[in-house]
Amino acid sequence: MKKLNGLVSHETWASLIGMIYLGLIVNLLLVVSSLPLVVLLVTTDPLYSWPLLAIAAPLAAPGLAAAFRAFREHGEGGLGPIRAFVAGLRATWRRALLIGAAVAAVVVVLLVDVRMLASTAVAVFTVPLLGVLALLAVGVGLVALVAIAEVPTARLRDVVRAGLYLSLRRWYLTAASLAALAAQVAVFATAPALGLGLTASAALFFAWTNSRFTLRPVLDLDEKAAAQA
Known about the structure:
- By secondary structure, this protein is mainly α.
- It contains ten helices and no strands.
């Protein structure tokens, strides 16, 4: 019994250390891969530099997809976090850039419309609707990035379609992921070093877990098709 308890304790500590190592490495690689966006966020006022932020934001998308690949490999006992991140970056960066650019464009258009309509008589109806659509765009983009991290060879059209449908179908998971990301933004705004060095990977891991569960119907179909082939 003592040997069993010692073995369980050792495995628990090894798992905990592995998660801490994964989080720290992913945080570091995310900062490196998203450096233009990070520099702008740290050195400028977003209220005035938002056009530059909109241009730099898509450049962070490949790093996010690579981080999701690292999370998957860790859970499956595959590649180490550095090799998994690099492999994910190499496999998904083109599609991740397209997804990031599309999400950034949609969000910018919607927020500009919000600003234009905020002082009109229809603002009470249109502003909340446009805000929800902007959040939906971010949610679909998040799920799409997780999808290409899981299946890098999937067609982008199918990824976006599945992301849109499943994000709405399992809206509660999408809302939870967006809440976690919003909390991370708040942490970064008050303590950038803490947000970049510690909490970023935790928030993304939570969002990845939710998004992966959201995609289970599609991923299960892919697994069945692969098994039949």
